[in-house]
Amino acid sequence: MAEAVGVEEEVIELTGTQKSAILMMLLGEDEAAEVLKNLSPREVQHLGTAMYSVATADQETVNAVLDEFLEIIKKQTSLGLGAGNYIRNVLQKALGDDKAQSVLSRITPASSERPIEILDWMDARSIAELVQDEHPQIVALIVSYLDFGLASDVLGLLDTQMQSEVIIRIATLEMVDPAALKELEKVMQSKFKANTSLRSSQVGGVKAAAKIMNFTKEAMEKRILNDVKKADKDLMQAIQDNMFTFDNLGMSDDRSLQTLLRSVEMEDLILSLKGADEFLKDKLFGCMSSRAAANIQDEMEALGPIRLTEVQNAQKRIIAVARKMSDEGTIVLAGRGGDEMV
Description:
This protein has 20 helices and 2 strands. By secondary structure, the protein is an all-alpha fold. It has 3 domains: 2-74; 117-241, Orthogonal Bundle (Annexin V, domain 1), CATH 1.10.220.30; 246-328, Annexin V, domain 1, CATH 1.10.220. It has a two-stranded antiparallel sheet. The chain is flat. It starts with a helix and ends in a 14-residue tail after the last helix.
């Protein structure tokens, strides 16, 4: 009985990725390879790391994971029926609407033809060396196609003068016609021997530039935004408005939020929560003791009406602290750099 309890505890401690890794180890080399072919570079890295971590799992743990998997499969009835909607719904439930749409835009057949897909499998330094001598517009187009975290790493390895110009060009990109993609293909064909289909594509934009900036370190972020401001103040403001905001804190894990809350000024927190939505309030209150949460709520009520600018400035000060702690690796901010939580 004690042994069974021990196995159950081991399985509970396994992450979803580790459980998937155990199933991958059971598939066999050929079948596992087929699964990996359908994953993104980052997913392959996470799953591959997990496969090493569970390589010594005992038979009882493997059996328990397999039983859990079979139990889940028994409850699934959508296999083969409306697969597109099923996949979309699963991704939305797992990632939320925005992240799901980002993934779907990359994996659905209508948007899977990307001229530089090979770059997703290269490290940032290799990509930076590959594109550093190209025209900034070409670099911007290439960087805009990359995963946001990888794009930020590549950006950080480019010459400082080019970094700001690339962000400006990404922020002002919209539709890219086949002629531009053909030019891009020519550039890439000089490095790789590959043929790709050409079609009109929508890449870049202010939101894409903002997401790339979310992954940059604070010092680099300030310098680039300052350069963008000199070139186009409105564009800088648009990028900044779409970057990591106070409301985005609600996506982060409880442990990181608890650490952050211990590092911010109480007055700033009270002011910030005056302008927060109910979800974020509940999330942050849940990361405190009930007594601390009650005290803050009392303070918020006692303040009465507050100018919006005061609330926004307090939120900016908390975000500044959060970004600094994220850069130092003290906390993980979901959607802003660092490794994803699995």
